[in-house]
Amino acid sequence: MDRVDPVEQAFAAVPRAAFLPRGARSRAGDDTPILIGHGQTCSQPSTVADLLHLLDVHPGQRVLDVGSGSGWTTALLARLTGPSGEVVGVELEPDIERWGAANLAGVDAPWASIHEAEPGVLGDPQHGPWDRILVSAAAPTLPQALVDQLADPGRLVMPVAGSLTLVVRDHGSVTTSRHGHYRFVPLRSAPGSPT
C-alpha cells in the first residue's frame, strides 16, 4: 500500500484560494506566485511543496514560520503538526500580518497563530527553540540568529543566495545542504534588527 504524503494531504485540506486577495482567487490553481500587496507574494504551490517536504514536519512539533504572509504556509504547517503541535507565524508588514491572521482564523487550527515581528528581532527567539523553522524570503547569507533558534534535533529551510538551503542541527552539530535554485522576495529585517 502506498504511503500517503502528508504534504499532499495538507494541500487538499487547506485550499490556497482562501489565502489570496479576492480578485486573485480564480488563479489559486496556477503554479505561479501571486502578489498579495506590499511587494509580497503567495509562493507558487510547487515551491511551497518543495519547502515543506524538505522541512519534514511531524505531528506534535513546534514550528516557526518566518515571513508568514497570507497565512497559507502557517495553515499548512498547522495541518502537518496537528493539534498536539504549535505553529507561530511572524510577519514584518502590519497590514499583511493582520490579513494573514484573519485568513488563518478561518481554519480550525487554534494551535497556530500569526504575530507581527518584534522590532529588532529576527524570528521568535523568546519562544524557542523550534523543532522546525521555515523562512519564505531570501537572504544573501544564512542568518545565525535563526540557526540559534533551532532545537536539537531541528531543521531550518530557507532560500540563501538563490539556493534553497536546509540546515540540520543534530547532536550538537550543524550541517547545511543546498537543494536547487528558487526566487523569493528578499528577507527584510524589522527596524533595528541585526540582519
SSE series: HEEHEHEHEEHEEE
Distance between the termini: 47 Å
The domain tally reads 1
The low-confidence parts are 190-195
How many strands, which pairing sense, and closed or not: the largest β-sheet?
7 strands, mixed
Oligomer: single chain
User: What integer is the average pLDDT?
Assistant: 92
From the coordinates shown, what is the CATH architecture?
Answer: 3-Layer(aba) Sandwich
Strand content: 25-35%
Global Rg: 15 Å
InterPro entries: PCMT, SAM-dependent_MTases_sf
Keywords: Cytoplasm, Methyltransferase, S-adenosyl-L-methionine, Transferase
Subcellular location: Cytoplasm
Family: Belongs to the methyltransferase superfamily. L-isoaspartyl/D-aspartyl protein methyltransferase family.
Written account of the structure:
This protein has 195 residues and is of the alpha/beta class. It has a single domain (6-181), classed as Rossmann fold, CATH 3.40.50.150. Helix content is 23%, strand content 29%. The protein has helices at 6-13, 45-55, 72-81, 94-105, 144-147, and strands spanning 34-37, 40-42, 62-66, 86-91, 112-116, 130-135, 150-160, 163-170, 173-181. The strands form 2 sheets. It has a 7-stranded mixed sheet with strand order 5-4-3-6-7-8-9. The longest helix is centred in the middle third of the chain and has 12 residues, at 94-105. The protein starts with 5 loop residues before the first helix and ends in a 14-residue tail after the last strand. Mean pLDDT is 92; it is low at 190-195. Belongs to the methyltransferase superfamily. L-isoaspartyl/D-aspartyl protein methyltransferase family.
